[in-house]
Amino acid sequence: MEFQKDNSFFTGRLKSVGFALKGAYKLITTEHSVMVQFSLAVLLVIAGFYFEISREEWMMQTLAFGLVLGIESLNTAVEKIADFIHPEFHDRIGFIKDIAAGAVMFAATAAIVVGLLIYVPKFL
Question: Is residue 79 part of a domain?
């Protein structure tokens, strides 16, 4: 199968969106960490409606779980590429994968702080 670039603006964008949706579906259905994080995002949306959070809280919450899912997706891509290039354990590949996982940790920590800032006052 040979790749053919679509030079048409509209159909090219539609194809790009299709590839993105296909990738998001693959992430949500095959990667356990993404499954967990996506489930938490759905629960936060439900909680947001239940607690009637403000517009600003919706923005922060949406950015927080979008950031985590985005970084986790890039981490998964880095891991898949690294495993493809060097399937056996290698110190340098492990180092690269650890750095990518650390990026997820930073994003997740920030998202937890945002969640606590939004929801702890609702319980107090």
Answer: yes
- Which helix (H) or strand (E) covers residue 36, if one does? helix 32-51
Q: Per residue in 46-67, pLDDT tens? A: 999 999 999 999 999 999 999 9
Domain count within the chain: 1
Domain that holds residue 84: 32-123
Binding site for a divalent metal cation, by residue number, is 31, 79
72 is catalytic: yes
The letter for the amino acid at 103 is A
Binding residues: 31, 72, 79, 88-90, 97-98
CA distance 101 to 118: 26
The CATH number that applies at residue 117 is 1.10.287.3610
Distance CA 17, CA 38 (A): 19
The model carries a pTM of: 0.85
Q: Which listed residue (2, 52, 57, 72) is catalytic?
A: 72
